[in-house]
Specification:
Elements lengths: L1 H41 L8 E7 L3 H11 L6 E8 L7 H14 L7 E3 L45 H6 L3 H5 L15 H10 L3 E6 L3 H9 L7 E7 L36 H4 L2 H8 L5 E4 L1 H4 L6 H9 L4 H15 L6 H4 L4 H13 L11 E10 L58 E3 L6 E9 L12 H10 L10 H4 L19 E7 L3 H12 L5 E8 L10 H10 L7 E3 L31 H6 L21 H15 L9 E5 L1
Parallel strand pairs: 1-2, 1-4, 2-3, 4-5, 5-6, 6-9, 10-11, 10-13, 11-12
Antiparallel strand pairs: 7-8, 7-9
Helix pairs in contact: 2-12, 2-14, 6-7, 7-9
Length: 665
C-alpha cells in the first residue's frame, strides 16, 4: 500500500514538475523574444546594411591616398558604390579617368562604376540639360564645354600643378597595372549618369574631395533624390584657421592668411576646393542635407611630419603603400621650400578617416570620432563681394538678364562682384586682397547653415609613439594591411617586361634634311608625327620634337608622344615641353599660374582636351615607354630651349635656309 501510494505520489509530483518546466520554458522564450524585440528596437536599421558611399574626386595625389584608405575598408561595412571625376580642379578628365581605372584594377575593384564629363549644357534661363560635364563652374556654364578659367587659373598648369597630378609625377605609367577599362568616346559613363544610378538605388553617403560642381548640378537637376542622400562629407573651406598673431599689438583676432590660394594679393580667404566653384558649394550647403566639413582649420593641424614620413618609408608592405610613398617622396623632393613637412597636409585622406569614424560612432550626437575634434558652426559660402546689386559686368548670374539666372535675387548675396581671376583689379590691393569668393564664413543671419566642422586633429593616444596624431597611426595601419590589398603592379602583372630604350643604328647612312617638329598634340598632329617617322632617314632626319602646352592637349599628354616614339623604335629623339601659357598670360607675381585668354576656345569634353589627352582612347594600346614625365629628373622646358642649340653645334654648316621646322598649331 505504501509502495502504491509512493508510486502515485511520485507520478503526480513528476507531472507537476514537468508542467512547471513547460511553464518556465514559455516564460523564458517570451523573455527572450521580448529582449530580442528590445534589441532590434535599439539597433539602428541602417547599421545592419553596408554604408553605401559615393566619392566625387578631382584625382589629386592626396585624393589617391584617400581612395586607397577607403578601398581597404571592409566592404560589408563601407561599400564604395561609385566614383565621379571632378573635371574642374587639379586634374584633366582624360588623365584622371584612366588613373582611377588603373587604381581600381590594381585593387581588384573593377565593379565600381566611374563617371566623368558629359556634353550637356545650361540654357540662358537657367534650365539644366542632362549630363552637364562639370568642366566649368556653374555660373560660367553655357551650352559648350569650352569656357573661361575664372577660378581654375589659381591652380598651376605645369610642374607642381596639373602636369604632375595628371601623370602622378611620372609614377602612374611606371607603377600601376593596366586593365581593360579605359575612356572610350561616346561610351564613357558621364558623371551625372553615375551619380543618378548610385543615389537612386538607395540611401547613400557622399564624399566630396574637390569642387562641388558635379554634386550641385545633380541636386539642382534631381531634387526628388535628395531624400536618398544621408550625409555629405566635404574636404574644403577655411573657417577659423590656427593663425598665431605676428605681434602682441595685433588685437584684431583676424588671420592674415585664412585661405591657401597663392599669391594672396587678390583673395586671402578661399581654399582651393571651394574656390573652384563657390556657387556650387553654396548650393550644396543650403540644400537641406546634413553636411560635415573638414576645412583647413583641421587639416593644417595634421601636416605630413618628418616622423610620419620616416615611418612610412620604413613600412611599405603593400603595392598601394609603395605607390603612395613614392609619390610623396617626389613631392617632397620637388617642394618649392624646405617647409614640406609643415605645409603638405593630409587633406582628403583625413576627410575619409574622420567620416568613417563618425559613421562607426553614429550613436554620438556631436560627431565624436577617433581622429578630430568637432564643433557645430553656422557658416555660409561667399559667392560674390559687396556692394550687392552692383552691375559691373563681372557677375554672369546678373549681367545681361532681366531675370537673374537660377532665380537669385538682384540685390542678394549672389549679386555682387564675382572675382574674374587672380589678377582682377577689383580684388587686388597691397598686402592683402579684398575678394572673399569661396570663403566659408561664419555668420548669424538667415543665410548661415548649421554645419558640423572639424577643428583640430587629435593627438596620438600613445604618448610614447613617434607618430604625433592618431590618424597617422590609422593610415599606416590600413594602407599596409594585407587584407583587401592590391594584387600586382605593372612589373608583376607582366613579369617578363623590361624597360629598354630603342635607339636606331643608322650606320653610314647619309642623313636627310634635319627637321624639328613643333606640335600641340592634337589627333592630327599625331598622324603627322607618324608620317614623319615613316619617311626614310635619308630624306627627313627628325632631330627633335617641341611640345606646345597651349593648344589642343594638356602637358601630361607628352607621355603619348614618348610612347609613339618608343613604338617606332625612336627613343633617340629628344622631346621638349614648351611654356604653359601664351605670351603675356602668366601671372606676373607667380608664373606657375595664368590666364586662358586664348585656350578658352578649346572644348574640355568631346572633340577637345578629353579626346586629345587620351588619343580618343587609343593611347592605352601603345607600349609604355621608359621615358615619361619626370619632374625631378627631366626638365623638359630646358630641353626645349636646347634642342636648337644642339642641332647647330652638331651641324655648324646648317643655316636657317636649310633647317626645316614644321610648325603644326
Amino acid at each position: 500500500m505504501q509502495t502504491m501510494f509512493a508510486l502515485v505520489w511520485n507520478n503526480e509530483v513528476r507531472k507537476l514538475f514537468c508542467q512547471s518546466q513547460r511553464v518556465m520554458r514559455v516564460i523564458w522564450v517570451a523573455a527572450m523574444v521580448g529582449s530580442l524585440g528590445a534589441l532590434v528596437f535599439l539597433v539602428d536599421p541602417d547599421d545592419a546594411q553596408p554604408h553605401r558611399i559615393l566619392v566625387d574626386t578631382d584625382a589629386d595625389t592626396d585624393d589617391v591616398f584617400a581612395l586607397f584608405y577607403l578601398l581597404k575598408q571592409d566592404s560589408t561595412r563601407f561599400d564604395l558604390q561609385a566614383i565621379t571625376i571632378n573635371a574642374n580642379g587639379w586634374s584633366e578628365a582624360g588623365h584622371a579617368i584612366n588613373h582611377v581605372y588603373d587604381i581600381l584594377f590594381m585593387m581588384g575593384r573593377d565593379d565600381i562604376p566611374v563617371g566623368v564629363g558629359g556634353e550637356g549644357g545650361i540654357l540662358p534661363n537657367g534650365t539644366i540639360l542632362p549630363n552637364v560635364g562639370g568642366f566649368q563652374p556653374i555660373i560660367d556654364q553655357g551650352m559648350s564645354t569650352a569656357g573661361e578659367c575664372r577660378y581654375r587659373q589659381a591652380i598651376p598648369v605645369a610642374q607642381r600643378g596639373r602636369l604632375d597630378v595628371n601623370s602622378n609625377y611620372g609614377l602612374r605609367k611606371a607603377f600601376l597595372p593596366q586593365g581593360s577599362r579605359r575612356y572610350t568616346p561616346l561610351q564613357q559613363p558621364t558623371a551625372q549618369q553615375v551619380m543618378i544610378d548610385a543615389i537612386s538605388s538607395g540611401p547613400i553617403t557622399v564624399f566630396l574631395m574637390g569642387a562641388h560642381t558635379n554634386f550641385a548640378i545633380f541636386l539642382m537637376s534631381n531634387p526628388h533624390l535628395k531624400k536618398n542622400v544621408k550625409h555629405v562629407y566635404a574636404m574644403g573651406g577655411s573657417v577659423r584657421p590656427n593663425c598665431p598673431k605676428i605681434n602682441s599689438s595685433d588685437s584684431s583676432g583676424e588671420c592674415s592668411d585664412i585661405g591657401n590660394l597663392y599669391p594672396q594679393d587678390s583673395n586671402p580667404y578661399a581654399e582651393f576646393n571651394i574656390f573652384s566653384d563657390p556657387f556650387a558649394a553654396y548650393k550644396v550647403l543650403h540644400f537641406g542635407i546634413p553636411v560635415t566639413l573638414i576645412p583647413l582649420d583641421a587639416t593644417n593641424t595634421i601636416p605630413l611630419s618628418k616622423s610620419f614620413f620616416m615611418e612610412f618609408e620604413r613600412r611599405q608592405n603593400t603595392y598601394e603603400a609603395k605607390y603612395s610613398f613614392q609619390a610623396l617622396k617626389i613631392i617632397r623632393d620637388t617642394w618649392l621650400s624646405d617647409a614640406f613637412h609643415e605645409q603638405y597636409c593630409m587633406w582628403d585622406s583625413f576627410l575619409v578617416g574622420v567620416a568613417l569614424s563618425i559613421i562607426r560612432n553614429s550613436h554620438n550626437l556631436y560627431g565624436e570620432n577617433e581622429f578630430a575634434e568637432m564643433q557645430y558652426m553656422n557658416i555660409t559660402v561667399v559667392t560674390s563681394n559687396e556692394p550687392y546689386g552692383a552691375l559691373d559686368g563681372s557677375n554672369p548670374l546678373i549681367t545681361g538678364y532681366s531675370t537673374p539666372r537660377f532665380n537669385v535675387q538682384k540685390n542678394g548675396v549672389h549679386s555682387g562682384h564675382v572675382q574674374m581671376g587672380m589678377q582682377d583689379p577689383f580684388c587686388l590691393q597691397k598686402g592683402k586682397g579684398k575678394c572673399q569668393d569661396g570663403y566659408t564664413k561664419e555668420g548669424t543671419g538667415e543665410d548661415a547653415v548649421r554645419v558640423l566642422v572639424a577643428t583640430k586633429a587629435k593627438p596620438n593616444h600613445d604618448n610614447r609613439s613617434i607618430l604625433g596624431r592618431e590618424f597617422y597611426k590609422s593610415f599606416l595601419h590600413v594602407i599596409n594591411s594585407p587584407e583587401r590589398t592590391g594584387r600586382f603592379d605593372i612589373r608583376t602583372q607582366y613579369p617578363f617586361h623590361r624597360e629598354f630604350l630603342y635607339k636606331p643604328d643608322f650606320g653610314k647612312k647619309i642623313r636627310g634634311k634635319p627637321v624639328v617638329f613643333d606640335m600641340d598634340m592634337s589627333a592630327g598632329d599625331f598622324l603627322a608625327l607618324l608620317y614623319l617617322l615613316k619617311l626614310p632617314v635619308e630624306l627627313i632626319n627628325l632631330k627633335g620634337i617641341l611640345i606646345s602646352s597651349t593648344g589642343w592637349a594638356t602637358p601630361a599628354t607628352i607621355d603619348v608622344v614618348y610612347d609613339i616614339l618608343h613604338m617606332m623604335a625612336r627613343d633617340d629623339i629628344p622631346v621638349g615641353l614648351g611654356e604653359a601659357f601664351a605670351v603675356g598670360q602668366a601671372n606676373p607675381s607667380f608664373a606657375a599660374i595664368g590666364d586662358c585668354k586664348y585656350s578658352k576656345a578649346i572644348p574640355h569634353g568631346s572633340g577637345g582636351y578629353l579626346d586629345s589627352d587620351t588619343l580618343y582612347g587609343l593611347a592605352r594600346d601603345l607600349p609604355r615607354s621608359p621615358r615619361r614625365v619626370y619632374t625631378l629628373l627631366e626638365d623638359t622646358q630646358a630641353m626645349s630651349m636646347t634642342i636648337a642649340k644642339e642641332m647647330f653645334s652638331l651641324f655648324p654648316q646648317i643655316n636657317m635656309q636649310n633647317l626645316t621646322c614644321f610648325l603644326i598649331l
